[in-house]
Amino acid sequence: MRAPSSDLPIVFDGVSLRTGDVTILDHITVSFNTGAPTLLIGPNGSGKTTLLRMAMGLVAPSIGRVTWGGRESAPPTRRAIVFQHPTMLRRSAGANIRYAMRAARIPRGEREARIVDVLNLVGLKDFADRPARRLSGGEKQRLALARALACNPAVLFLDEPTASLDPAATKAVEDVVRDIAARGIKVVMATHDLGEARRLAGDIVLLHRGRVIESGEASAFFASPKTGEARTFLAGELLV
Fold it and tell me: Residue 19: which residues within 8 A CB-CB, separation 6 or more?
C-alpha cells in the first residue's frame, strides 16, 4: 500500500477563487509536502472544503496556479478525497470497494486481496458482506476510507471525517488516519475540532474568510501562535 508521492509537493501560488462578487479563496499561498498529516482548521465557511477540492483538482482557481509535483496539469490518479458525508452504494461493503477499484482500473487480479487489506486496515475485516447503507456513521466513514485507499493514492484528502461522530467512532477514525500516514500516504485533513488537530497534525493551516492566517509546524503553532486571529481561535473565541 505504500505509495510514492509523485504529486507532492502540492503548491498553491497566489490562488484565489471567485464566484460572481463572492471571494471564496483569497490569495492562498501554501504547500503540502511529504510527512505527517497536515490539518486545515478554521471556522465554518473559512474555505477548508474548497481548498481540499482544489488540491484534489476538482476546482480550478480564478487567479494563481496550483501545481502537483511541479506540474500544472496532473490527472488525479494518485489522489483521493473522502467527503464529510460519503455516499454508499446499494451493495455490500466489499462491493463498494470493488466498484471503486473497477472505476480506477485496478487490475482484476489484485482486487480481492486489496479488499481484505483495506478492510483490515480500517478495522472492518468481517464487514465485507454487510450492506454498506446499514452500517453506523463511524463504520461508513471507515468504509469510505477503505474505498479510497483501495485505489492506491499517494495523497488522501479528508473533509471533516469525524464530524457528528461519538468519541468512540472518532477515535476509530483517528487511529485509521495514523495508520494511513504510517504507510507513507500524505493526509491533508480538514477539522473543526482543535483537540483532533492537536492529536493528529504534523503541520497546521489556519484559514479564515478564505485566507491563510497562519501555517507551520503544529507544535510551534499550538505553543506560540504568531497572529492575533490564531490566538483568538485557540482560546475558543469566535473569529468574525
Answer: none
Query: What residues pair up with 25 in beta bridges, in sequence order?
Result: 17
Here the cell at position 228 is 492575533
Every domain of the chain and the residues it spans: 10-234
Tell me how far apart the alpha carbons of residues 51 and 17 are, in angstroms, rounded to a whole number: 10
Q: pTM for the whole thing? A: 0.94
Q: How far apart are CA 73 and CA 66, in angstroms?
A: 9
> Helix axis angle, 93-103 relative to 137-149, nearest 10°?
30
Q: Which whole-number Å values give the CA distances from 61 to 33, 41, 110, 127, 186, in the listed order?
A: 20, 21, 36, 40, 22
Q: For the segment 165-208, what is each residue's pLDDT rounded down to a tens digit?
A: 999 999 999 999 999 999 999 999 999 899 999 999 999 999 99
Fold classified for 10-234: Rossmann fold (3.40.50)
